[in-house]
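Record 1 of the preview.
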Amino acid sequence: MKNKKINKIIIGIIAILIVCYLGYTIYLLIKEPTDVFTIEEGKVYLEETDIGYIIRDETVVKGENYKNGMEQIKTEGEKAAKGESIFRYYSKNEESLIKQIADLDEKIQEAMATTQTSPYQSDVKLLENQIDQKVELLNKTTDVAKLTEYKKEINELVTKKANIIGEKSPSGSYLKQLQDQRTSLENELNSGAEYITAPESGIVSYKVDGLEETLTKENFSTLTKEYLEKLNLKTGKIIATSDECGKIINNFECYIATISSSQEAKNAKIGDNVKIRLSNNTEIDAEIAYISQENEEENLIVLQIDKQIEELTNYRKISFDLIWWSYSGLKVPNQAIIEQNGLHYVVRNRAGYLTKILVNVEKQNEKYSIVSNYTTEELKELGLTDSQIANNKTLYVYDEIMLNPDLSKVDS
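->
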């Protein structure tokens, strides 16, 4: 019994010692890790994640018959020229008129099937061939815009065929009467419809949120953090599609307003070039178009962009990365860099042989730096002797460097 107690005490002491040893080992690794890092070509960014409000040059277009419902002629995101029809409102009795025309078309088809067409058989045959070709194309496509286009062309060809037969038919004939009725209904249908055209060229959109005339490039001076927050917009929410109106968006530029408290934002100037990264990971160039100070800590900044405008038409408020600068070259962790007498070094490990190498730190963020090798002229300007320059080593891609190196272990 006594031996069992002694064994338990011994086991407990051993367990405590093991835990202490492991804890001390972890502490040493954290304090002075001996990991190595392989040099690669990379990019270093100074960036921040911000919330942005989209400001566009956009014009809402709306007709008088907006309560009748509308038919899109140009689809969402499609470009339109100035004066081109982009959508239309249905006529007041459109549903009834369309049904009457469809009924007449059936009767006309039946009448044409029993009508002698020998004097103008070649014209009719040509139209029938064109109709067959369009039907074949219609059956092969899944594009909504093409489907609408082919259906419209088929209806026009059928109408043209009916007109030819109707015109050649004797006055007062049954087919002629049907065709005259159809023409009258079609004229009534077209005269009652209201077509809306583009006031200028640009992107067609039906995502209207009522902020088109408020968030404009002419109103930058009225923007404040309080005003933007009171809009109560949800980040990343897609603007609802309107069934009453549309709009034309300038496809050459748009703006993103954001609030930033970073030091870079405080030092920013109008005209500075930056980059932004959207949710699709696309990086695009931007220019600071406007700055105003919100308070001692925050600035309101408006960025101008001329790319990915179609991508942003769905949104009014987004999350994005504002990249103040980016730099490419040999990328190393900051914890691998040693500073001595105003100069920077890394320690290279080649098969256990450690060498201290002088490097030029070109750009640095919180975690990484872009470094390069000094030229001979630059080394002379730093005050190095000919002997030191001759013994200076060069850092290459795929070299292994030490993290938190111990200089006492570096080979002289």
